[in-house]
Design goal:
two-stranded antiparallel sheet, 6 strands
Length: about 90
């Protein structure tokens, strides 16, 4: 099931242009990594997973592609890249 519903989405769209859409999945045969591998494309993408105690599987995973901005850290340097510009 998707959240928000289509009607809720249309109401929110009248107020702004960025509406997060989520979907809960039964993950009997899907792992966060396999889902990530299915949706990623040639552009930037990400997989964030929550963990408990550094060893146990977490409850939430966030998978996304084509982000609005990229934060890249190399050594002591941090860059924020939006629309291909640093």
């Amino acid at each position: 099931m998707y959240s928000p519903t289509q009607d809720e989405f249309l109401k929110l769209a009248a107020q702004g242009n960025l509406i997060p859409v989520t979907r809960r999945l039964l993950a009997d045969f899907e792992t966060p990594l396999s889902a990530y591998r299915k949706i990623r494309g040639p552009d930037e993408s990400f997989l964030f997973e929550s963990v408990e105690g550094g060893e146990h599987l977490g409850r939430y995973s966030f998978v996304g592609c084509n982000p609005r901005a990229v934060i890249r850290q190399t050594g002591n340097r941090v860059e924020i890249i939006e629309n291909g510009k640093v």
